[in-house]
Known about the structure:
four-stranded antiparallel beta sheet; single chain; alpha+beta
Amino acid sequence: MIKHTRDKFRQKSLHEQRFIIVLCACTLSLFFWFGLYHPLGQAIATLQTRCERLQRETVWLSEQVSAAGLLPDKKLSGKPDELIRSSLKKAGVFATIQQVNASELEITASNVSIERFMQWLEEAQLKHGLRVVAVEFHASKQSSGIITLTRLTIGVKKNG
Length: 160
């Protein structure tokens, strides 16, 4: 079949042969353009747009989380347990601190003034960049302004 087509092509005049070659080249170029290059270019542009949108959404989400005080913005200056001990002592809150795992500390205390505790907690989050993972407390039977801190878990941001 290829031999038959080649013979037919050679029987054509030189002008017709050139026209067929140019027509085949244009057809192949159009197939390449509309079949491969253009769809790939559109797919790449779409993926880049999606990537940029996701990056903008990630930045927005991290700003919202930081604004809500859910994640620390600052690096800790010193060891987290020492920082917590000194800030608790400064606030006049006597508590027990235990290392739960590599990234969490657990604090327990009894007979704590709710006002002092809330002031310390706000300072720990805003000034020192500590993140509260979980908090459990109940009212003390002794006084209305006193609580027993059953568990306060502080997450420590490790890498940066």
